[in-house]
Structure formats: C-alpha cells, structure tokens
Amino acid sequence: MNILDKIIVDKKREVILKKSIIPVSQLEASIFFEKKTISLSNNLRNSTSGIIAEHKRRSPSKAEINYSFTVEEVTKGYENAGACGISVLTDGKYFGGSLDDLLLARATVNIPLLRKEFIVDEYQILEAKAHGADLILLIAAVLTRDEIKSLSEFAKSLGLEVLLEVHNQKELEKSIMPTLDMIGVNNRNLKTFEVSLDFSKQLAAQIPNDFVKVSESGISSVEAINELKAYGYKGFLIGENFMKTNNAGKAAAEFISQL
User: Fold this and answer.
1) Which of 27, 79, 83, 250 places its Cα 20 to 30 Å from the Cα of 56?
2) Can you tell me whether residue 98 is helix, strand or coil?
3) Cβ neighbours of residue 93 under 8 Å, at least 6 residues apart?
C-alpha cells in the first residue's frame, strides 16, 4: 500500500468519526455559510504572478518543514506579498494541519482560501464552507469520475470553486467536466514523491482553455514559472519553498517581486 492509499484509508475513518460528533446542522449554522466566495480563478486570470502560497507544516516526504510560525503570521505575510490565494493544509496526521488553521487564516486575510485536503465525502466540503474556504481541492487519483462529478456539483451548490488535481493523461481524461473551475497538474507523483515539471508541460495542451491551468509542487524558481507560463499556466502553487525559510511572507514577497 503506497502513502496515498494509506492517507485515504485514514481519511475515510476520520470522516466517519467526525460525522458522529459534529452534525451537518452545526456546520450549516456557521457564520461563514452565508459568506460570498472570493474567486481564485478570477484572481489568477487577472494576475501577473499567479502565486498560490501554501501554509504547510510538514509532509510525508519531509517530516518537518516549519513549525515556528503562527498561521496568522504566514497568511498575513502571503497576503501582503501579493499572493492570488492561499492554500491551507488541513490534514492532521500526515501534514500537521487542522480546520482551525483554515479558520485562523479566514479571520486574518481577505483573499481566496483553498482547503487543501484529501476529500472523499460531501461532509468535508461542508466543513470547508463552514470554516471559511472559498474553494476545495479534488484529487483525481483517489476519486472515480462519478465521485468527481457529485463532489464538484455539491461544492458548486455551496458557492465554492473547485480545483481538480491530476497527475497524468488518464486522470485528466476521466475528470474533465463543466463543474470544475481550475485544473491543477501535480508535478509530484503522489505514489513515489518524485518531482518533475515535465508532468505540467506534457499535460498542458490536453487541458481545455475553459479551465484555469495551475501547476503544483516542485516549483522553486522564477525561471520555472516563466517556463510554465509559456505552456498556458496561470496559477502556481508554492508551499515548501516559502515555508522552509525563517519568514514565509518575506520569501513570498521577494519571489513575487522578481516575477
């Protein structure tokens, strides 16, 4: 069983537990349920940098990236740096995140927030909405076409945008549907953790122009972004590169100013 399979098994258990503790009615009573969504896809279309900066404490491939910042420091720093949006990891076991991180980010900034999570159930989309997210991530590698369709439709019914992540042509072909706003290509193979920008380059031409193209993971230089822009990418998700410094906001600001 690879790491991705393990995460999904744990996630399904976690959702069952959470459903037994926090009823849907409690999530729907959140003040954020009436909040108007801030569109990341619009921000990316109209941006010169396209940076989606990520709050990420650790990952399965890097035991620890950074635990020394508060969520408020990181997210405010990213907003001040001019990021188009912020990705907040909410998985606890493998990434050291939580839904509280999303809540704190929402209380701190006024730019689009992505709930970065392994979504397998509509309940997690309700959680995202209740904690102030503007969009959700769906990962094609762990979902069937029918699941992508029903989960993306449900997200849209709540006013959330959808970023779908793919890693190869097969995943892309099964996933294309009108309920997606953005299609992201993950440059990291989630099964082996090998990273290569070639994944983004090879799939670029296959992604219809109706969707905003996003390149995710393994981006650490301005040159890489300029290279990917030539392939039609408008969004660039960067986490580790900023988080591993002693001031993520400052690192993002310097990076964006170089762009």
Assistant:
1) 27
2) coil
3) 7, 10
Tokens of 123: 């309940």
pLDDT tens-digit readout, 52-62:
999 999 988 77
How many angstroms from the chain centroid is the CA of residue 200?
16
The string of DSSP codes covering 122-165 is HHHHHHHHHTT-SEEEEEGGGS-HHHHHHHHHHHHHTT-EEEEE
Q: How far is CA 194 from the centre of its chain?
A: 19
233 secondary structure, DSSP code: -
pLDDT at 188: 87
185-201: average pLDDT: 88
3-state secondary structure of 248: helix
Write out the two tokens for 116.
């970065």
What's the distance, Cα to Cα, between the start and end of the chain in Å?
40
- Angle, nearest 10°, between helix axes 71-81 and 99-108? 50
**Which class for 8: exposed (0-12), middle (13-18), buried (19 or more C-beta within 10 A)?**
middle
* Two structure tokens written together for 251: 């690192």
**Which residues are designated catalytic?**
54, 56, 116, 165, 186, 216-217
Contact 193, 217 (CB under 8 A): no
Q: Are 86 and 54 in contact (CB under 8 A)?
A: yes
Give residue-wise pLDDT tens across range 88-98.
999 999 999 99
